[in-house]
Specification:
By secondary structure, this protein is of the alpha+beta class. The protein folds into two domains: 11-206, 2-Layer Sandwich (D-amino Acid Aminotransferase, Chain A, domain 1), CATH 3.30.470.30; 209-325, OB fold (Dihydrolipoamide Acetyltransferase, E2P) (Beta Barrel), CATH 2.40.50.140. The protein is 16% helix and 33% strand. A hairpin with a 2-residue loop joins strand 6 (118-128) and strand 7. It is elongated, with a radius of gyration of 23 Å. The termini are far apart.
């Protein structure tokens, strides 16, 4: 049976720590989780048909990545790969900002492709030679994927995602590889598992760090804060928004409310426009507060220019700390 696009990709459920990797039929494989765009690539079975590059949501964007579509012409016919799109910046580091720029390119897609070429990090194969492999165990699909790279001597823009069953190596990937921008954690997969489109049958573990920022604003009220808007100072001495927390628990809200002070007219965010979330256009009208309180929070490693893309988890107030103790914008701590 031939897979017809769009195909829902298999998904992962979040977990706080690495599960046991097991042995025998219950053994697990671990792969790095790259901070890119999930994508499936389809090579045509018939000459003249287009190469398709599908997003997680089922849209097609091969016109945004013409260099990948052209390179895919050299892959075997009737192939479907699952993986992650990534773009390197001028410092040769994975850059989500550069990737997003590529994904929203219009008429200048080819110019951007020459300036910042994309890479496809393949971690699964769903079809080979027009024969779907969804019911094959992951161990077998991995063998097929490795053979594809070895037999066809694939080089960039194609990259084979690393995979291990060694718990020590997996822990190293989670806690050391994530020091590099663009790697945010690991994904754990059963070697015996089949590919189930749309099902959260894998496990993802993001590395989380604990650090500090200044409370510059809130949603809700001074007596019942709901979400904290956290800032850090840049090298020019400006307080920059670096993230927003998840909604506070009642006890946390009371702890913060007991120490909040309304902002004065000289607050550095006076007149600044905020949005509800990263990369959102929905306006947010927070209550500004005196930027004197330091909050400790935990966060994953997904940042763009010092701004966290995912919500932060408030941990506690640092009443013993001042703004001088808070890392500057851009510090990955």
């Amino acid at each position: 049976m031939v897979l017809r696009p769009p195909v829902e990709p298999m998904l992962a459920r979040a977990r706080e720590s690495l599960p046991p990797l097991g042995a025998g039929s219950g053994q697990m494989a671990v792969q790095p989780k790259f901070d890119g765009f999930r994508a499936l690539i389809f090579t045509p079975l018939r000459e003249g048909d287009p190469v398709l590059l599908q997003t997680r949501g089922g849209a097609f964007m091969q016109d945004r990545f013409p260099e990948l579509a052209a390179a895919a012409r050299g892959l075997p016919a009737g192939l479907v790969l699952d993986g992650e799109l990534a773009v390197l910046d001028h410092y040769n580091q994975l850059s989500f900002t550069a990737l997003q720029r590529r994904a929203t390119a219009g008429r200048n897609a080819r110019a951007l492709a020459a300036e910042m070429p994309a890479h496809f990090i393949a971690f699964d194969v769903l079809q080979r030679d027009g024969q779907e492999l969804l019911d094959e165990p992951f161990a077998r699909r991995r063998e097929v994927l490795e053979a594809l790279f070895a037999n066809h001597r694939l080089v960039p823009p194609w990259t084979l995602c690393p995979s291990t069953t060694d718990a020590v190596v997996a822990d190293e990937w989670l806690h050391e590889w994530t020091d590099v921008p663009g790697v945010e954690g690991v994904v754990v997969k059963s070697l015996a598992g089949r590919y189930r489109p749309g099902v959260r049958g894998w496990t993802k573990v993001r590395r989380r760090n604990t650090t500090e920022a200044i409370i510059g604003g809130i949603t809700g009220s001074l007596h019942r804060p709901l979400v904290l808007l956290l800032g850090r100072y840049d090298t020019a001495g400006r307080l920059r928004l670096v993230g927003k927390t998840t909604p506070l628990q009642p006890g946390q809200a009371q702890e913060v409310a007991d120490h909040l002070t309304a902002a004065g007219p000289d607050h550095p965010w006076t007149g600044v426009r905020f949005t509800a979330s990263w990369n959102s256009r929905t306006p947010l009208e927070p209550v500004l507060v005196a930027p004197a309180l330091v909050a400790e929070f935990s966060a994953d490693v997904s940042q763009d220019h010092g701004v966290w893309r995912h919500p932060l988890r408030y941990e506690r107030l640092r009443l013993d700390a001042t703004e001088a103790d808070v890392p500057p914008v851009g510090d990955r701590q």
